[in-house]
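Example with several molecule types.
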Amino acid sequence: MILEAKNVLYSYKSKRDKIVLKNVSATFEEATFYAIVGSSGSGKTTFLSLLAGLDHPVSGNILYGGEDIRKKGLNYHRRHNVSLVFQNYNLIDYLTTEENVKLGGRKNAGELLREVSIFREDWKRNVLQLSGGQQQRVAIARALASEAKVLLADEPTGNLDEDTAQDITEILKESAHKMNKCVVVVTHSGELAKQADVVFRMKNGELQVLERIDDSSAQPRS
Amino acid sequence: MASRSANIATKDSTRQAIGAGFLLEYNPENRSQRLEEACEKILELNPDGQGSYGGVHQEKITVNGSENWRTTTDNSFESLKLDDIEKIASVGGIADYNITTVPTAVKQANFERIEDADADQTYDFQGVALIGNRDMSMDANVLSGNVAILEGRMITKDDTNVCVISEELAEKNQLEVGDYLQFHSVEAEEPVQEATIVGIYLVKEQMEPYMSGDTYRSENIIFTDLHFPEKVEQDDPLYETAYFKVANVDDYDAVKEAIKKVDVNWQWYDLIDNNGNLDTMASNFNDLEKISNTLLLVVTGASFVILFLIFIFWIKNRTNEIGILLSLGIAKGEILLQILSEAVLIGVLALALSFLIAPAVSNAGADYLVGQQAGQAELQDEMDAGKVATDYQAPDLTVTNVETEITSYMLLIDSLSVGVLIGLSTCAASVLIFRKNPKDILSEMS
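Resulting structure tokens for the full complex:
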């Protein structure tokens, strides 16, 4: 178990009485591809942001390697433990493809770009000159450039056509199975969820396991 | 800042250029008081109220059957006290001094004066006017640049029985340097006093006549040594003004303070700053200094507001980038440092540009004010044109150039100010973004 959510309760600061996550608990393993599905507003993106250390829960803990991520700091967690991929790619628009990848870490950017099928002629181009699918590949390459063992993706195929979405899903799957990463994807896509090793459903702030390949890899607790 | 320093430099250098000094005159208001005091003293000493004291004479006269009092003064009452002048002249920092007599009407004995046939001579003395100077080079007319020597030389303190005449008078009488002029008083033809012509002067503009009539017309003004007028008039001297030249203009204020401590009856006198048009200029430049100071504050305040708004806009536009960097685990402090570095880089470029432009802007500002000063002086001349009496002519001053320079001190202060300004405004603008947590920033991006 590399990442764990333990009795996580979350509500927005402005609406403390509205509970977004109700004592959610879950564990995540390396080399596993997780999908979290659920309707809009169910709290799945909030849960992912807590796993990513972008915010902290009102109560409960997020543990990485058994240690509360707040102990070393959320910045440290985001920098060393997790890498993120977003629906809207979140690339820096004035940098080139290669420069964006280098932001993720020290790994060879060219090699990573090749792995996600971005060819050399596009490496020096401004990222805005790439297609949506290419930009998402770059975003994944940036996430893979990190030494982090956990890759968290929020609707990575949400803006992409079916074929491209499948390509991206493949890359994420490979990241989990070939690079031994723990890949957690929040998605509305049934196609993507079907290919996940473990699928969680977030409903009214509660997390349930819908499907699992191997019972030992994840357990719903709420 | 360059404008601010430019005006100070100009003020001092101008004062140095024209030579600074002080003018001593009797206080006209105090004269009445002195007169009353003398009359009281006469009454105290003489039960019938008639008599003299300190140059004041009081007598009873009968006019048309009615009794009246007549009070007259002589030169000993009206003249500046030589002792007082010498006391002031001995103050440290005074390089030299001059005493100027009142224009004294005398009659010419061996030459003809310049006359205007159309002028009303009813009350004229039919003579010429002598102005005695201890050192003619410090006469107000000379200091102002209105009178200059055409031939020969000026009168110095060691001269006796010498004079300097106008070129018109010399021409009319075919006089040359080395010739003699003879004078006697208005009242009596004897004794006749003789003065050697040591110089011939020319004027830029006619000197204003002291009184109506040709006695005091500009061409008939004859400069003499200090004591010559009293010899001709056969009376006590009548010193109207004294001028004290300051050795080093940088000590001007200190010398002024020292003079004020001299043991003389200061109620009698006015000590006038004699800086020519410097007062007007200084006023303008002081105004510029005030404006510069106010401008510095306003610019600083406005810059902060403008920079603050620019940085808010800038940072707002970079929310996307900040969110991404935060999601990559880069600390807020590091991101702020990066934004600050970029702002400082722009600031350095702006500073370099401002230091290139500042001298030209400062010079333009200073030149404008000098132009204003010249305009004011011209206006003043026009306003004074109709006046008859002229006791003091301000030096005719023209400033043709104003220099400014950027000092290393200014560079340092400017750089620090700009640095602080950028730092404060960047941090203040950043607070609006950085007080949010990364999740909220990323949500905004979405």
